[in-house]
């Protein structure tokens, strides 16, 4: 958006720009295909000589409008939607990696992302080294190899709630001539815009706060356009040398700052096809329109719940970066002074079994494999999202066996606390 609107205005107005007589509300372009008058016109689209829609697997106007809104919220240059956050994490890496390459990742990660990077892409020939997010610049640097193509981390990790020192990670990435890719799902651009701190590419599971109502799975990749691929030509030949599947187009030459997203759309999406359905993109847009109202309320409620739990005799520990004294409070204040997210973690005295008992007695908070939506929800990562990990991997990912992940919704905080109160009585 070529203006300086505040983020609240962008949540409502960015993206869809109706022309004279067009619908005020973003339409759902529920069409797989788009019509052209001549064969020549269609052919030029296939050669990337003209921009335009021809098949929804590559691009769709509803999706593009929503991607443009998220791009604007993040302060990026170009963006694309994907079918899920997992697809975004996969594409973000595989757009610049191939068999024989390597990435470095902060070890505090969402379990699905850990699985993807530690195991699945390894089978495709791309290896990952995991570093402690609290490690020094030298230690992170030591994990890099000749073939390293990216550094990856989560702004606020799920569920360990480690706040990434984005500037530190960006510095190390750039010293090694690779982009920093940040998953900004938990913070959302309302609370943190990683590009302002040096990150190059941002990914999202839009399934979480962006959708906000647990209605549609989706993902997004946003490129800042700031990383100079040409300056590291030998590392990123996939962007700086001819793509024979498009008659020798060189993405950086033809699309400049749009090279990364154009390649991801026209090559990966073309071949792997993890498009977000226009229907889901429409729902996502409705969610985005209230993101600026919901996120502060999530944070306000979560702080009240965290303070309540901290004062409770049966609670062994509480972790919430907005709490004074929390290990990540200082980093949270630096990168997210208006609040982090609505998710907190805690453990009950009595360990894993006591934590599970508490969860089973909650009435308002539901046990769901989901996080970051309007309804309060709860999960035991060691038994659920992270159950594929062994004890050592759990600890490296910052997931203690007794850890309860509590995703505070936007109900009345007193009701959420009363629910916890009655459940704690049963422990
Ligand atoms: C931080 C983070 N990134 C990525 C994902 C994957 O997103 P999705 O479930 O939309 O595939 C999740 C899912 O919980 C997540 O929490």
Structure description:
- It is a single chain.
- 38% of the residues lie in helices and 13% in strands.
- With 427 residues, the chain is an alpha/beta fold.
- The protein has a seven-stranded mixed beta sheet with strand order 1-7-6-5-4-2-3, sandwiched between helices.
- Helix 5 links the parallel strand 2 and strand 3.
- Helix 3 packs parallel to helix 12 and helix 15 packs across helix 17.
- The longest helix is centred in the C-terminal third of the chain and has 20 residues.
- The mean pLDDT is 95.
- It binds pyridoxal-5'-phosphate.
- Pyridoxal-5'-phosphate binds next to helix 4 and helix 5.
- The site of pyridoxal-5'-phosphate (PLP) has 17 residues, from helix 4 and helix 5.
Structural features:
binds pyridoxal-5'-phosphate, 7-stranded mixed β-sheet, about 425 residues
Question: Which helices and strands, and how do they pair?
Answer:
Elements: H1 7-13, H2 39-46, H3 61-74, E1 78-82, H4 85-94, E2 102-106, H5 111-123, E3 127-131, H6 137-142, E4 148-154, H7 166-175, E5 180-183, H8 188-191, E6 201-205, E7 219-223, H9 237-240, H10 251-255, H11 259-272, H12 278-288, H13 291-310, E8 315-319, H14 329-335, E9 343-348, H15 351-361, E10 366-367, E11 377-379, H16 391-396, E12 404-407, H17 413-425
Parallel strand pairs: 2-3, 2-4, 4-5, 5-6, 10-11
Antiparallel strand pairs: 1-7, 6-7, 8-9, 9-12, 11-12
This protein binds pyridoxal-5'-phosphate (PLP).
